[in-house]
C-alpha cells in the first residue's frame, strides 16, 4: 500500500530514537510529510541524517500537557514511540519515575489526539506487559497476546505500558472516529542503539565489549542461560506500517506481538559477537548479577495469520550490522 503514505501528514513522537528514526526515514521515502517530537534526552539528531531537511523536528518533553495540546494537531496519523526506556538497571533503580513519566507522556499524547480529532493512532507497547511468571520459565513457554491477563508484570515499565493499552482500547470504545493500533515490540534491535555499558541493551553492549576488548572485559550478568528473542529494526518497521494501514478497515488493530519466533541464550549471543570480532576473547560471568527475567519468548503467529507479517532478517546478519555500527561510533 505504497500510495497509502503519499502526502500523509504524520507525527512520530520519539522520532529520533531507534524505531522512530528508522520509521521516519522509511516514510519520507514513501512520500509522507513527517514531523517529529523528541526531547533528545535519548534520541539523536544524527539518526535522522539520511532525511535532513525533509522533516520538522519539535523539541520538548511530552510530560508538558499544554505543549502536547498545542502541537499534536492537524495530523492524519500519530505514531507514539516516545517512552522512557533503558537497560534493566534503569527500570529497577527508578521504578516510580519510570512508571509516572511513561503514564504521563502516554496520557498527554492520547488526550491531545482525541481532543484534536486525529483519527489514526499507533502505540508502541512492549513484551514487558506479560506476567513475570511466564517470563521466568526455561520450559520454552511461548507467550500469546491473551496471556497479558491476569496482569502481573515484573517492572513498573510493563505496568505503565499495560495501563496505556487499556486506556487506548477504551478510548476507541468511547470515540467512534478514533482508531488505534497497538504493537507489543519484542527485542527490537539495530543500528543507532544506546551503546552505554550501564544503560544499553544486550546486543549493542556485547558489541561494545567485544570491540574494546581487552581494554575492557567481556562480562555477562548471570550465567548466560537466559533466553530472549530479537527482531531486526527493518522487520519491525514493516510490521508497524502494515498495522497502521489496516486502520483503514478496523477500529482497533492488535495488540500484536511483534518480534521473532526464534529464541537464543544470552551466552550464545555473546559467542556470536566474539566470532564476529575475530578476537580471542575470554567470556566472564558475574553470577552476583542475577537476571531479573529468565525467559522472554513470545508467540508471533497471530500477526502472521491476520496481517501476513513475519520477521525475515537472520539474527546473524543483524548482529553483524550492529557490530559494524558500534565499531564506527567508537572510533
Question: Key terms for this structure?
Answer:
331 residues; alpha/beta; Rossmann fold; three-stranded mixed sheet; 12 helices; 14 strands; 40% helix; globular
Brief account:
The protein is α/β, with parallel strands linked by helices. It contains twelve helices and 14 strands.
Structural overview:
With 331 residues, this protein is α/β, with parallel strands linked by helices. It has a domain at 8-189 and 230-260 and 298-313: 3-Layer(aba) Sandwich (Rossmann fold), CATH 3.40.50.720. 40% of the residues lie in helices and 18% in strands. Helix 2 links the parallel strand 1 (9-13) and strand 2 (33-37). Helix 3 (65-71) runs parallel beside helix 5 (95-115), helix 5 (95-115) runs parallel beside helix 7 and helix 8 crosses helix 12 (315-330). The mean pLDDT is 94.
How would you summarize the topology of this molecule?
Elements: H1 2-5, E1 9-13, H2 18-29, E2 33-37, E3 55-58, H3 65-71, E4 77-80, H4 88-93, H5 95-115, E5 120-126, H6 132-135, H7 156-174, E6 179-185, E7 188-189, H8 202-212, E8 218-221, E9 227-229, E10 231-232, H9 233-245, E11 252-258, E12 263-265, H10 266-277, E13 283-286, E14 295-296, H11 301-307, H12 315-330
Parallel strand pairs: 1-2, 1-4, 2-3, 4-5, 5-6, 6-11, 7-10, 8-13, 9-14
Antiparallel strand pairs: 9-12
Helix pairs in contact: 2-9, 3-5, 5-7, 8-10, 8-12, 10-12
Amino acid at each position: 500500500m505504497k500510495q497509502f503514505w503519499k502526502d500523509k501528514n504524520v507525527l512520530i513522537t520519539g522520532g529520533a530514537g531507534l524505531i522512530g528514526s528508522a520509521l521516519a526515514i522509511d516514510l519520507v521515502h514513501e512520500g509522507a510529510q513527517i514531523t517529529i517530537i523528541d526531547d533528545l534526552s535519548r534520541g539523536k539528531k544524527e539518526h535522522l541524517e539520511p532525511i535532513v531537511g525533509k522533516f520538522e523536528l519539535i523539541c520538548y518533553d511530552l510530560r508538558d500537557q499544554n505543549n502536547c495540546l498545542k502541537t499534536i494537531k492537524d495530523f492524519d496519523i500519530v505514531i507514539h514511540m516516545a517512552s522512557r526506556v533503558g537497560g534493566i538497571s534503569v527500570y529497577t533503580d527508578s521504578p516510580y519515575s519510570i512508571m509516572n513519566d511513561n503514564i504521563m507522556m502516554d496520557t498527554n499524547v492520547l488526550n491531545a489526539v482525541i481532543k484534536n480529532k486525529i483519527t489514526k493512532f499507533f502505540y508502541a507497547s512492549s513484551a514487558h506487559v506479560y506476567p513475570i511468571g511466564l517470563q521466568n520459565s526455561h520450559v520454552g513457554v511461548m507467550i500469546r497476546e491473551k496471556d497479558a491477563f491476569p496482569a502481573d508484570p515484573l517492572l513498573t515499565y510493563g505496568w505503565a505500558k499495560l495501563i496505556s493499552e487499556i486506556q487506548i482500547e477504551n478510548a476507541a470504545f468511547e470515540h467512534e472516529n478514533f482508531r488505534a493500533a497497538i504493537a507489543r515490540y519484542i527485542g527490537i534491535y539495530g543500528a543507532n542503539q544506546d551503546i552505554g555499558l550501564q544503560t544499553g541493551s544486550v546486543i549493542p553492549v556485547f558489541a561494545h565489549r567485544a570491540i574494546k576488548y581487552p581494554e575492557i572485559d567481556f562480562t555477562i550478568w548471570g550465567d548466560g542461560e537466559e533466553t530472549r528473542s530479537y527482531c531486526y529494526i527493518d522487520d519491525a518497521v514493516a510490521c508497524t506500517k502494515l498495522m497502521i494501514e489496516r486502520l483503514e478497515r478496523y477500529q482497533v488493530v492488535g495488540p500484536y506481538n511483534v518480534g521473532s519466533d526464534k529464541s537464543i541464550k544470552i551466552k550464545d549471543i555473546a559467542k556470536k559477537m566474539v566470532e564476529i570480532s575475530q578476537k580471542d576473547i575470554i567470556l566472564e560471568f558475574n553470577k552476583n548479577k542475577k537476571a531479573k527475567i529468565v525467559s522472554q519468548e513470545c508467540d508471533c503467529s497471530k500477526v502472521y495469520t491476520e496481517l501476513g507479517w513475519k520477521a525475515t532478517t537472520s539474527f546473524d546478519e543483524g548482529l553483524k550490522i550492529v557490530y559494524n555500527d558500534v565499531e564506527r561510533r567508537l572510533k
